[in-house]
Amino acid sequence: MKTLHLYVVRHGKTYFNRYNKLQGWGNSPLMAEGIKDAQIAAQTLSNVDLKAAYSSDTTRAMDTAKIIIDGNKNKQHLQLITASNFREEFYGSFEGSNMDVAWTSAGASVGLKTYKEIVDAYGVDKTKDLLKAADPWHDAENSEEYWQRVNQGFQRILNNPILDDGDSVLLISHGNTLISLADRFGEGKIQVHERPLNGSIARMELSADGLTILTYNNQPVQN
């Protein structure tokens, strides 16, 4: 069974990150600080023997990926593969909303006011379900819709014929997606109340059995 080594990087800081706005399928550009986030990640990963590189099809992820690829020793052989499977959670009509206001709306039906309160009481997947229910158009993704899309993306990586057992792969991801992965595959060892740092690196192992998270937000996952 093939096992791949994933380097999962959160994109650099954007203007919507700065303004505390929900940023799912919507997009804002990297700030100068966000470009620096990507450059630091590129330095850290420069000598990793990357065999493939993936990102979502949002510009903040693609721009981050290009900086990291350009700094990698294998840059001449790496071509960025983009896929909508790796987009952030879709927030529906809450896209671009203040995060605190959006999560207060999501938690209103269960008497909770913050993302942290919802996660503590119900888990990360429930935040998606509650936000979809609170969206007047119900366009926001619920947990089932979200995981169907993301799991197809990981299967796409596993099915890449150029990748062999033990190969290393870059994946540029998003804050809530990293939280979702940590909640589902972190075995309760990872704090999921707050988004990981922009430009932070998580090391994971991907196989047909799922994901194992080794480091998260630049820190080892403690056994």
TrEMBL record:
Keywords: Hydrolase. The keyword Hydrolase applies. The keyword Hydrolase applies. InterPro entries: His_Pase_superF_clade-1 (IPR013078), His_PPase_superfam (IPR029033), Phosphoglycerate_Mutase (IPR051695). Gene3D superfamilies: Phosphoglycerate mutase-like (3.40.50.1240). This is Histidine phosphatase family protein.
